Amino acid sequence: MSTPPLSGAGMAGAAGAAGGFPGPPAAAAAAATREVNTASLCRIGQETVQDIVFRTMEIFQLLRNMQQLIPYIEDDYWKNEERGPASQLRYATEERREILEVNKKLKQKNQQLKQIMDQLRNLIWDINAMLAMRN
């Protein structure tokens, strides 16, 4: 019992007799396809790594810009020599007042954003209605 040849004249002759493509060029095409796939895979991997690096650099740039936008404010409590109950109460009262002001501003901004979103929603509905009437 003998094993059939893997490639060469026997396969080429059989493929040629059957009306197909000869053996060695088909084997070369399969090898070329494998190389192209490997090259494509490497290219896709390189693009992915470059995209990750770019996005990471973008995130760090945004964080750096945010850090510049937030001013550094020394804590008055730690600068103050007095640390008694009266000082703590005064500090807590000031902090509470500041928090209430920030909450008030935040609610105003949220209301403005809600109005903008409602206006955009209405605009999108109008655009969709006009597009539906065209068809």
Descriptive overview:
Residues 92-126 form a coiled coil. GO terms for molecular function: transcription coregulator activity. By secondary structure, this protein is mostly helical. It has a domain at 23-72. It is built from four helices and no strands. It has helices at residues 9-17, 23-69, 76-79, 85-134. The radius of gyration is 36 Å and the shape is flat.
User: How are helices and strands ordered from N to C?
Assistant: HHHH
Q: Based on DSSP secondary structure assignment, what is the total number of beta strands? A: 0
Summarize the biggest pleated sheet: none
Radius of gyration, rounded?
Answer: 36 Å
- Average of per-residue pLDDT values: 75
End-to-end C-alpha gap: 73 Å
SS class: mainly alpha
Question: Which spans have pLDDT < 50 for at least 5 consecutive residues?
Answer: 1-21
Backbone shape:
flat
**Helical amount:** over 70%
Strand content: under 5%
What is the number of helical segments per DSSP (H or I, 4+ residues)? 4
